[in-house]
Amino acid sequence: MSRAILLRPLGFFRQLSFVLVTLQLPAAAWGQEQGFLFAPPQASSIAKRVDSLFYVIFVLALVVALGVCLTIIVFCFRYRQGTKVDRSNPPDRNMNLEVAWILTPVVLSMIVFVWSARVFFDIYQAPPGSMQIYVVGKQWMWKLQHPEGQREINELHIPIDRPVSLVLSSQDVIHSFFVPAFRIKQDAVPGRTTTVWFEATQPGKYHLFCAQYCGVDHSRMAGWVFAMKPADYQQWLRQTGTGQGTMAAGGAKLFQQFGCSGCHVASTVVRAPVLNGLYGNAVPLSTGQIVTADDSYIHDAILLPNVQIVAGYQDIMPSYKGVASEFQVLQLIAYIKSLPQKSLTQADGQPDAGRSLNGANRPEGVQEARQNARQRMEANQQPQMGGGNR
What we know:
elongated, alpha+beta, 12 strands
């Protein structure tokens, strides 16, 4: 087979791909304007980037699929029985062609990989100052609470042009928070917290679904997201009222109700870490590791306290799994996060090993934290009664 015959289909495919890329995006935009549901409306700041990535991947896949199919069809007709073509299959090499069909897919794949990775990380890294809303999925409903204390069931009211960060958790099985118009989907997993953020750009009413099969009434686990102008959102807040107060206020009540204040405040004689200034700080463990006290760490500290033992403390804190609901755990986390970044002292008056990340993530900060932890362990060889390990 001559080189001209091999290159002729490649030229056709290049022209075809150019036509598809040129027509795809305008056709999709026209379809949305005419009410044709080619795709949900683009109602968030990330939606256009997600759609652009999707269209490019779709066009590339379509070009490859059409190329393979058309090549099969051409070869079927050209080499069918009775046609006069060279069937001797003489040996032939074309290094340029071989390099091209190897490097071209590799380059295209790497471009798509880098592009999609940037979009992925931008979706899951909320900008500073985002409005934080707590979301708990349970069979078969969504329970949400705003920073000001307003609570909603299967509905979410948010202002446009303001980043909103969702802290997701599940009471029972895996759920998935999915808003097609915002191009966001994040699983809510039992026993841990996950986050996702978005910024609505257009006022409107948008579908909210659970995108993970979660039981018999999974199809009914749906709701609405109401994107509102800032003035309308403030009016909605005033009309709704604060209900039972903010998440942090509810967590403060639970902190007293569950007896946490009997161990985790500076005035107690029980050896347990003081929680002021804990969130976002480095915490040395009995295994020698250094972890960051983020939402997941505090969540595990409440429900699975014996998994990560803080260096210098006994494994005596009880688990609150089955005692505190998932929503109550989120309230406790919100309260701990609201505590001021000061009073980094233990109940015994010694400096705490969990210091600010500004110092603890540097080598000298880590060494200092580990040295303090070893000193406390040596001074605490005798069993202590009561308290917790976090």
